[in-house]
Amino acid sequence: MSSTSVLGGVVRRREDPALIQGRGRYTDDVKLARTAHVAFVRSPYAHATVGAIDTSAATAMEGVVAVYTAADTDHLGPLIAQVPVGALRPLLNNGTVKHVGEAVAMVVAEDPYVAKDAADSVEVDYEPMPAVVDLKQSLSDEVPVHEGASNTLISWVGPFGADEAALAELQAGIEAAKQRDDAVVVSQEMTNQRLIPVPIEPRSVLADYQAGYDRFDIYSSTQIPSALAGAIGKYFGMSMNQVTVKAMEVGGGFGCKLNVYNDEVLVAFASKQLDRPVKWTETRREAANSTIQGRGWVATATVTGTTSGEVLGFELEGIADMGAYSQNFTVAIPFLGLFVGSGQYGFPTYWKMDCVTTHTMTTDAYRGAGRPEAAYYLERIMDMYARRIGMDPAEVRRKNYISSSDFPGAVSPMGFPMDTGDYTTNLDAALEAAGWSDLLAERDAARAEGRHVGVGLATYVEVCGFGPSGLVDLGFSWAEYQMPSAFNGSSLVRVHPDGSATVSIGTGPSGQGHQTTWAQIVGDGLGLEVDRIRVIHGDTEEAPPSIGSFGSRSAAVDGAACYEATGKVRAKAARIAAHMLEASEADIEFADGGAHVAGAPDSSVSWGDIAACAYQPHRLPEGMEGGLEAHAIFSPGNATWPFGTHIAVVEVDPDTGDVDLLRYIGMDDCGNVISPMIVDGQVHGGIAQGIGQAMFEDAVYDADGNLLSGSLVDYILPTAADLPSFELDRTVTPTDVNPLGVKGIGEAGTIGSAQTVVNAVVDALEPLGVTHIDMPLRPRRVWQAIQDARA
Amino acid sequence: MYPRPFEYVLPSGLDDALDALDANPGAKVLAGGMSLLPMMKMRLLSPEMVVDIGRIAGLDQITDNGDSISIGALVTHSEVAASGLVGEHGAALATAASWTGDRQVRNRGTCCGSMVHADVAADQPAAALALGATMVAASSSGTREIAAADFFVDTLMSALEPNEILTEIRIPKVGAGTGSAYDKLGRRGGHTDYAVAGVAVSVTRSNGSVSAATVAVTGVGNRPVLVGEVADALVGSDGSDAAVEAAAAQATCGIEVLEDLYGSVDYKTHLAQVFAARAVKAALASAA
């Protein structure tokens, strides 16, 4: 970074004016002539055989273009998955449907209203069968979700890579610890409930097959444009360069757009069949059953420790809900939990998660994806342990941290090498920011007045910034999507003949501010005004292949590629400038829109001058190629491991169970910060979603597999009005796995927050004897917990 | 979220609107549209015709009738919440309106629309009951007055006939010594979102005791209802906390309390009692 670095300064997001003024362009805003519109016929049953499908009324309806069933599309095969463990989703199903909302037929019509009318008129004979929704019932294999197969798809056991002998020794060690005279064993079964991702913009796809050129333009609200291009190519026997995917503005993703969906393939199919553009935009109610969901674990956490706060072992054993079909990551999500199963601690950890299938919508990545669940169990049980032994919860954590002196080279008890960490410094900063001892005193004073005030603390470590390209060897292979280069970052920086610049990058942002961040990196490296830099992302025609935006990876991986490509352009420009100024290359500095000789600011050339020279090879130094652009691929040596400490203060009304969130303090460490405002925004949204899980959100299925909370009337999302003003600050422990020193911050807020709030509420109710309440902590649950404790 | 086809008319006068309703028994009246349009988009309701009364003059006023105030069919929740007249004579309704929906909904949705929609967990119907409001319904054969106590018939069902428009809600003015209040727990806690349980109260004090009271409960059963037992227990009492809590213990008398995602029968019964006590205390305080 140069001495006049714009990195780390507060820069306003350049994308915001368009978004705030309603001038952003989303997929559904793209209007192509002759576009036909899709509506799906979806199963009202969670488990049923599909008999006759009568499409005659729909076909006869004016404005209906076509009606397709599985008979038309089965030849394409099922929906591809990256980790294809378990049954794959049929594109359309005319056999046995496996969840409410599963697509049975596709209607294509002249407008979406007619399409919906026609879809409603399709008559399907269903023979309903018993559904499996409960995770323990699924685990028992009493009723198979998929005929002839066990409901348990895979069991993740950690530490990672430990063989049976090592696992047995680990478990024996923890069992022995439980027999010690000073042993304290705290165990609790807890639910980490299912959540429905609710981006403001639902999913939307527009496919435009161009028969004259045998190619597709696909517009989709996706986080992974390149994978979608690869998948569409694969389904239709085309090379990936015959498919262009453009992700326009994407109005939130949170992982739910990190899938190639059957509807995307089907809309492309219809476009090719009909030789016209075809569009489908998900409705909000439809989204509840047609877009992946997240979380959905039941597990028992056990801490074995001493009376003096030394933890001798942590065990987590449970069941994770995969839903009906495996999609992109599905069974890999609990594996991401295993990655951080031991958190920031050094104690022995045994971890086992059975991944079971149920008659519900598929689960997959939702902001945090396995890591919030893992952190929740660990930090809830650590809190219960601290309470049991009567020790300050911050001190119990401090006692058991991996020491900062173990870095570099620290390997977590789960078997993963970690990049950098300084957990104690971060904890102390959080305690200082919150005024910890005063907080506890205020809480005690409030209790003396009969008020139910609670203080909750939780710390976390995350793994993100995926990652090393070697991850493909762990089973995270994107080969199914024709994307073997999956985990690389990739960026192309081009200086145009007029001295302006364009950075093309393979990220697929959905609100992360990439228009700003990449321009900052390029602008900083070239000494070029941000206004002169165009950023192109989410467009497979323009951008070099890269996998997209998820797992808090963009800055740490593609951002690093952008930094390196910028460096290459700068190096070439320095040679050109030195040539033009008749100076030594080593003396060239870039600032204020051009290059100058160090110590001689008047001896300068603008980027326009340099570019003009670059594009006239006869003026260049002998042997230099014309042009001024560079491509860089970046593969980090490791994932990154951000961490943090969160603190919440609540007051509970014991008469109603109503929880008032009074304060929320976040102290995160994501390494170096490129744009503080963007990082704060990410943390804000992340915490809001974590609080949403802690207090409001719940995907409730009945025993027949009907989603009872499928509309936003009953699926309660947090709003700004429900939240206090967050008090945020950071410690800075740069990573050594990328040249920017950045770790990633997209998911940290979510990973750190749910357990912080639950810890605070349980603390508030401790005098009443409450030790645990399952999320969401709606008033009903809190009141009931108080009644149960009193009984 | 695509509604079925429907015809849309935008009459400029009340008579035209009423004629349209007479001619189209499947028609629905549109004012703010905050309940009707979502139901149509979810295809829970598919009227053949929508009669938009938004351009009819004179329906957008809160008026002082001398002994009562009238809230016209186009008056929004925000306007009710901000009205000095409503605040003075029907504080329970002003509070209920201020806690209805979110700001956007309050700026478009109407008080009369909330009454006609008759949601089991709506706030303002409880306030109308407690305040002894009169519903004025117009049809092509004239107007009729319906007591609020007779208006809320069943789940999402009011006493309004398909060919009628609720043109105004009339609230009697009150003098010194009378006060009203509304309190609730919303689904997301605090006062936000639909009521898990809500209680509206109007009380009159004279000579140190409670001389009149009405208490209405919403959110816990199939419709908002008056609970005479609480009112009866209050009248004649000294309005002490003990008397209020004893009366509030009967908050769900005569109500079949229904469980939903937000509360068990026990919890909702308990909440109705808690908020009955809180609302009565607040009303008594304002009546002092």
Care to describe what's here?
The complex is a heterodimer of chains A (791) and B (288). Chain A has 791 residues and is α+β, with helices and mostly antiparallel strands. Chain A folds into three domains: 154 residues, Aldehyde oxidase/xanthine dehydrogenase, molybdopterin binding domain (Aldehyde Oxidoreductase, domain 4, 2-Layer Sandwich); 186 residues, Aldehyde oxidase/xanthine dehydrogenase, a/b hammerhead (Aldehyde Oxidoreductase, domain 3), CATH 3.90.1170.50; 229 residues, Aldehyde oxidase/xanthine dehydrogenase, molybdopterin binding domain (Aldehyde Oxidoreductase, domain 4), CATH 3.30.365. A seven-stranded mixed sheet of chain A has the order 3-5-1-12-9-10-11, with helices on both faces. In chain A, strand 10, helix 7 and strand 11 form a beta-alpha-beta unit. Chain A is globular, with a radius of gyration of 27 Å. With 288 residues, chain B is α+β, with helices and mostly antiparallel strands. Chain B folds into three domains: 46 residues, Uridine Diphospho-n-acetylenolpyruvylglucosamine Reductase, domain 2 (2-Layer Sandwich), CATH 3.30.43.10; 104 residues, Uridine Diphospho-n-acetylenolpyruvylglucosamine Reductase, domain 3 (2-Layer Sandwich), CATH 3.30.465.10; 110 residues, CO dehydrogenase flavoprotein, C-terminal domain (Enolase-like, domain 1, 2-Layer Sandwich). Chain B is built from twelve helices and 14 strands. In chain B, the strands form four sheets. Chain B has a five-stranded antiparallel sheet with strand order 4-5-10-6-7. In chain B, a hairpin with a 6-residue loop joins strand 13 and strand 14. In chain B, helix 5 runs antiparallel to helix 8 and helix 11 runs antiparallel to helix 12. At the A-B interface, helix 4, strand 25 and helix 20 of A face helix 12 of B.
